[in-house]
Amino acid sequence: MARIYSDENFPLPAVQELRRLGHDVLTTAESGSAGRKIPDLEVLEFAIREQRLLISLNRKHFINLHQKDSNHFGIIVCTFDPDFVALAKRIDNAIQATLETKGSLIRVNRPNP
User: Containing domain of residue 10, as a range?
Assistant: First the structure.
């Protein structure tokens, strides 16, 4: 399964479900960076050093960072979904469907009602 770094705004219940699905997820709080308002570029650089996919709800900023430089271990940007189990399952499916996550931008959107 995937090694993932979740940024500060990613919901913990979705992290917990990703772990239940077998992913190795490190949170911003667990890395000692919570509440420090670290710039997105530094968050991505940490994920790169740790060789982890980065996951975020902060779509615009991380899409821009990917477009500037795709030399990373993958970025997953998601739309918010209060059904955290369903969100985690969509993320899991997207990771499994991606042949090579390194350098990839993976978009996970909430389904339309």
Answer: 3-108
